[in-house]
Amino acid sequence: MANVTLIGAGSSAFSMSLLRDICLKPSLADSTLTLVDIDERRLNTAAALTERYSREVKSSLRSRAFTDRRKALEGADFVICAVKVGGYGPLECERELAGQHGYYRGIGDRVSCYYGGVGAYHQLAFFERLAKDMEELCPEAWLIQTANPVFEGTNYITRHTKVKAVGVCHGHLAYRRIAERLKLDLGRVSVQMAGFNHCIWLKDFRYEGHDAYPLLDDWIRDESKAYWESDRYEARVNEILAFSDDQMSPGAIDAYRLNGLMPIGDTVRSASPWWHHTDLQAKEKWYGPGGGFDSEIGWSSYLREKDAIQAKSLALSTSIGSLLPEYPPVPSGEQHIEIVDAIANDKEACLQLNIPNRDAVEGLPDDVLVEVPVLAGARGLQAIHVGSLPANLMNNVMIPRMLNMERILDAYVSGSREGLVLWLMNDPRTRSYEQAKGLIDSLLALPWNAKAGEHYR
Amino acid sequence: MANVTLIGAGSSAFSMSLLRDICLKPSLADSTLTLVDIDERRLNTAAALTERYSREVKSSLRSRAFTDRRKALEGADFVICAVKVGGYGPLECERELAGQHGYYRGIGDRVSCYYGGVGAYHQLAFFERLAKDMEELCPEAWLIQTANPVFEGTNYITRHTKVKAVGVCHGHLAYRRIAERLKLDLGRVSVQMAGFNHCIWLKDFRYEGHDAYPLLDDWIRDESKAYWESDRYEARVNEILAFSDDQMSPGAIDAYRLNGLMPIGDTVRSASPWWHHTDLQAKEKWYGPGGGFDSEIGWSSYLREKDAIQAKSLALSTSIGSLLPEYPPVPSGEQHIEIVDAIANDKEACLQLNIPNRDAVEGLPDDVLVEVPVLAGARGLQAIHVGSLPANLMNNVMIPRMLNMERILDAYVSGSREGLVLWLMNDPRTRSYEQAKGLIDSLLALPWNAKAGEHYR
Asked: What is the DSSP letter of A387?
C-alpha cells in the first residue's frame, strides 16, 4: 500500500487511468489516492468517478479530494504532478501573437504549449512551489513529474531542490505503431529507446531477438509510398485524435534517414528538422493531410477532443449504471502506478523514465535529464547504460535540444529577459535581434504574464 | 638545439618571424631550420632571406630548403605547419558563390577561409597526409599546428593520428589593445583567456593584482562613445591592416554584455552574434567604418597587404644591405619558438595554446581542443585548469561553436555530403533544405574541388 497524491486531478480521463491501474494491483490494495485540483467543479467530477469506480470494482482503495495542495501533501509517499497552469487558452493567444511576429505556430520546441508559455514560466514557477512544499511536508516522497515540459521541469527540480523526482511520459509506446505497420507480433518485439523526453530514438529494435531495423528498411523501400497514398494513412484515427499516422509519416522516415535512428512518438513532431515545419504545406508534405498533431488543424482537433472527453466525464459522473464500459479494468499503459508499485513493494520493473544521465547516454553531462530504460525497485531508480548515439543525431538534434533546455532554465533561474531573447535568437525563423526582443516583450506584456514580466527583467 | 621544420615557408614574413625568434634564443644556437614549400620561387625567397639574416646576426643556425615535404621531415624534432592549400583565390570565388545563394560573405565561422573552403576539405586532407608522413618519418616529433582552421584541424590530428600536436595562434595578444585603450601599464596587467581558437574570452583580467573588469566597465560607460566617434577609432592602423579597432568596437562590447566576458582578438569577429554580420551596414554599426576585418572592404585590404608584404620580401631577398631595419632582432610575439625552447630545453613557459581539454574548461568533453593557458616544458604540455565559463557563453557560443567543429569533422571522416548540408542547415541564413543543398552541390562542383566532390558523396 502507498499514499499517492495526484496534483492536477481535474483531468478526469488521466485520473481514471491511474485509478484503474491502482485497482489492478493487489499489492496496492488499501492504498490512499488523494486528488487535488484548484478547479473545484472538475475535482468533484473526478472524485465522484473515483469513488463510484472503486466501489464498483470492490477495491479497498481509500480516496480523498482537496483543493488545498498543502493538505494533500502531508503523509504522501508519491506525488504525481499533472498540472497545466492556466489551461490551454492563453497558449493559443501566445501562439497567435508569435505568428504575427514571424513565428508560425508559436515558439518553443515546435509546440509552444510544452513550455507553459513564454520561457515555460508558469509551469516552472509551479514546479518550484510544489517542490518547496514537498521538501517541507513530505520530504521522503517521490515526485512523479508528468506535466510538460517534462524535460525542463523535471531537470529544474533534480538540480535545484532536494526532492526525489522522475519524469514520466507515455510517448514511447508509439513504437508499437511501427511493429503494427511492419505486421510484427508485438509479443516478440523488444525495444530500447533513449534521448530526452519528446526527443527519444529507437536505439535498439529486435524481433525474435534479431535486429529488426532491416525489416523497417524493407518497408520503407517497398511499402511506404503505397501506404502514404492509402486511406489507412490518411484516415487513421487513434484513441482521441483524427489525423495521419505521424509515427510512420514521411517526416519520421526522413528524420530516421538524417539521424540514423527512428524517432519515437512525440519525437516525430518535436525533434524533427525545422524545415519540415515552415508552413502548413510543408507540414502536410511531411506529416500527411492535416499537417500532423501540431498544425492549426491537428492541434484544434486535439483541443476539441480534450473538451469532449471532459464533458463526457462530467456526464458520466452524474449518470447511473456501470462505469466499466468506459473504463475497462485493463492497464492504461501509463507508467505512474508501475513506479509506485516497483518502489513501494519492490516489484522490480524495467520502465522508460526520465532521470539524470550519469553517463547512461555517452557524451551528455551527468546532470542532464535523459529518457532511458530504467530499473525501478525498492532500491530506487537505476538507469540502464545505453551507450552512444550516432554523431549526426548528437550534433544536430540532441545537443541543440539540450542547449534550449539550458537556455530556458538559465533564463528562469537568473530572471533574465535577455536570456529569453538569446534563446529565441537560435530559432531559425529569427531575422533580427529586434524581432526576437519584440516578441518576448509582447508576450511578457500579456495580462496573464504579469508575474512573468516582473520575473524576467 | 633542435631540428625545426617549417611547412609552408613560402610566407616569408612568417618564416622571418620564426627565424628572428630562434636567433634570439642562445639555447637554440646550432639548431637546424628546414624550410618547405611547394612554390619554389617563394621558397627560394624565404631561404635567401633566412641565410642572409643568420649571417648578419652571426647565428650558428643551419638552414635548409626543400620542395619535398618528406625529405624535410626526416630527423625533425618539431614540425611547424603554416600551410594554406591553394592560396586565397579559390576561397574568394567560393565566398562570391555563397553570396549568390543567400550567404553574405560566405559560409563557415563568419570567415569561410578559416575552413579551407567548403567543409575545410583541402586543409583537413593536407593535415591528414602530413600527420601520416610524420607517423612514418619522425614519430617522436611535435607538430606545431598554426594553419587554419586551427580548431578543426588540430582536433582532427589529436583524435585520429598518433602525432603529438598543439594548435598555435597569436590572436590572444589583442588583450594588449584593451590595456592600451584603458591606459594601463602593460607590465602590470595579467590575463587568462580560455575557449576555442578564434573563440577565446578574457576569463581573468587583473591590474596590479586586482580585478580590472571594473576599469573596462568604467571605460564603456564614460569613454566608449567619444572613442567610437573619434579619429583614433576610425583611422586606427595596426601593423598591416587599415580598418577600425575591432577589439574595442561596439560589437566587442556587445559580445561582452551578452556573454559576461570580453572576446579577445579574432573572437571579436568570428564568435560575435550572427546578427552583427547580416550585411555591410550591420558590420559597420558594430565594427566601425569598413565593417571590420571580414567585410568586403576589410578582407580586400588584408589580401592586398599580404601581397604587398610578399612583394617586399622578394625585393629584400635580392637587395644588398642590412635586413635588420626590416626584421629587427626583437621577439615576434609568436609562440612557436617558445614551445620549441620549452620542450627541447626545458625552459618552462606559460603559453596560450590549443590542446585537448581534459577538464581544463568545465563542461566541455575531454577530447575537444581548447585554447587555454598551458605550462610548456620538457615534460610536455599541461593545461592549466581555468574552471567554468558563464552559462550564456556556454549555451549560445561555446557549445554551438563546438558542434560546428563536430559536424565538419564528422562530415570529413564519414565523407558525407549530407553531413555538410546538415551543418549548413544550422546557419541562421538558411531558409530551406534545397537552398543549403544547392550551395553545397555548387561548391563541390567547382574545378578545384574535384577531389572534395568525390570525397563527399
From this structure: B
- Tens digit of each residue's pLDDT (9 = 90 or more) over A108-150: 876 655 677 899 999 999 999 999 999 999 999 999 999 999 9
- A430 and A339 part of one domain: no
**Cα–Cα dist B244/B237, whole Å:** 8
Mean pLDDT over the full length of chain B: 94
Cβ–Cβ < 8 Å for B163, B361: no
Q: Domain residues for B432?
A: 392-455
Whole-number CA gyration radius for chain A: 22
Residue B45 has pLDDT above 50, yes or no: yes
Measured in angstroms, the CA of B263 and the nearest CA of chain A are apart by 17
In a domain, A266, yes or no: no
Query: Per the domain annotation, does A329 fall within a domain?
Result: no
Distances, alpha carbon A111 to alpha carbons A94, A103, A198, A435, in Å: 11, 11, 11, 20
Find the CB nearest A392 among B273, B399, B422: B422
Rounded to the nearest 10 degrees, the angle between the axes of helix A280-287 and helix A250-259 is 80
Measure A392 CA to nearest chain B CA, in Å: 7
Whole-angstrom CA distances from B288 to A8, B175, B228, B229 are 56, 19, 8, 10
CA distance B231 to B288: 11
The per-residue pLDDT for A163 is 98
Q: Do A275 and B433 touch (CB under 8 A)?
A: yes
CATH of the domain at A116: 3.90.1820.10
ipTM for the predicted complex? 0.91
**Residue B135 maps to a domain:** yes
Contact B307, B12 (CB under 8 A): no
Q: Are residues B339 and B428 in the same domain?
A: no
- Considering the domain architecture, whether residues A338 and A430 belong to the same structural domain is answered as no
Are A410 and A339 part of one and the same domain? no
Residue A327 lies in a domain: no
The C-alpha cell that represents B137 in the structure block:
618519418
Could A396 and B426 be called an inter-chain contact, meaning their C-beta atoms sit closer than 8 Å? yes
**Counted domains in chain A:** 2
Looking at the fold, whether B339 and B422 belong to one and the same domain comes out as: no
For residue B235, is pLDDT > 80?
no
| Residue after which a domain boundary falls, among B343, B374, B406 | B343
Give the pLDDT confidence of A395-447 residue by residue, as tens digits: 999 999 999 999 999 999 999 999 999 999 999 999 999 999 999 999 999 99
Catalytic positions of B: 170, 266
Last residue of a domain, one of B309, B343, B377: B343
pTM, entire model: 0.94
Could you give the C-alpha distances from A428 to A39, A251, B251, B269, in angstroms and in order?
Answer: 39, 18, 22, 21
